[in-house]
Amino acid sequence: MTSYKIALIPGDGIGAAVTEAAWEVLGRAAHGAGFKLEGTTFPWSCDFYEKTGAMMPADGIETLRGYDAILLGAVGWPKRVPDSVSLHGLLLPIRKAFVQYANIRPHRLLPGVEGPLRASAFDILCIRENTEGEYAGAGGRVHNGTADEVAVETSIFTRKGVERILRFGFEQARKRRGKLASVTKSNAQKYSMVFWDEITAKLAADYPDVEVTNYHIDAMAARMVMAPESLDVVVASNLFGDILTDLGAAIQGGLGFAASANINPERDAPSMFEPVHGSAPDIAHLGIANPIAAIWSGAMMLEHLGEAEAAKAVMTAIEAATARGIGIEPGKHKTQDITAAVLSALG
Ligand code: NAD
Known about the structure:
two-stranded antiparallel sheet; binds nicotinamide-adenine-dinucleotide; single chain
C-alpha cells in the first residue's frame, strides 16, 4: 500500500484543534482511497520557544526534509513571543529553505456561504511569491533608541524569483480559465515593480493562449470587492499577495474558509500546507475554531501528493457540510461538530 510520511506542526492557539480536525478527515479519506498517511508531530511553537530559546531545533529543516509533506496549523502567540520572532523562526525559514516559492490560495464561496459581497459566484486562485520580495529579511537598524535611529528594510526581487512565480501563474491560468492578473505598483515603485512588469510581458509571449492584465495593487483590492467574478489567476509579490489573500478570505466568508499551499513546484523538497489564518488567540480556548480552512489545505496536500480522488472526496465532503449550514456562521458550531459533519459526509 502506498504510504506518505507527513510532518505535523500544529503550532499555537487554534493551530492544534484545526490540525487535529484536518488530520482525522485526511486519515479517513486515505483509508477510503486505499493509501496510508503516517504522521509525526513536532511541537515547534511559541511554547517551544519559551522552553528552548528557538522556534525549532537547529536541525529542524534537515529533519523536515525527510517528509513527503508538511501540514501546519498556525504559529504565533504575540503576548509572549514577538510575531517577528515566531514568524522568522519557523514559517519563513521553512518556506525559504524548501524553495516553496508558490503560495497558492483559492478564494471561492463554498455552498451555503453567502459572504459579505453581492457577488455570489467567483473563483479566484491567488498565487503569492513566497521566498523573496518584501519579506526577504534584508535590512537593519542603526543608532538604536536615539532620535537619529534609522530602520531600513529592503525588498529583493531577483530575475530567477520573479520569472519562476510568473511562469507558475501562467501555467495555472492555462489549466483554468486562461486569465492572468499580474499585480504590482509599478507607477510608484519604479525599479522592482517595473522589473516585474517587464518579465510579465516577456513571458506572455510564451503563453499566447493566456490573457494577461496588469493591475496596480490598489486597483486590484477594489476589483476583488467590486468585480471578483472577473478574476481567474492573480499573481502578486510576497507582501501584496499576503494582504490580497486576507481580502480574498474576507470575501469568501472569513478566515475560517481560506486554505493555502506553499508549493515547491520542482518537488525537490517537501511542500507545506496550512490555513491562511493565524493562531486566533481571541478564540483559542473556546472550541469554536472553524477547521474548514485547515481541512481544505489538507485536500490541497492530497492533490499535491497525487491523490486527486481522495482530495476531491474531501472537498465534496466539506461542501456537503457547508451546504447543510454547518460551519458557515462564526461561532455557531463547535470545531468538533464541523469536523464530525465533514467526516459523516465522507462516509
Ligand atoms: P488570526 O488569523 O489569528 O485571527 C484574525 C481573526 O480571525 C480573529 O478574530 C480570529 O478569531 C478569527 N479567526 C481566524 N481563524 C479562524 C478560524 N479558523 N475560525 C474562526 N475564526 C477565526 O490573525 P491575528 O489575530 O492577526 O494573528 C494572531 C497570531 O497568529 C499572531 O501571532 C500572528 O502573527 C499569527 N499568524 C500566523 C499565521 C500563520 O501561522 N500562517 C498567519 C497569520 C497570523
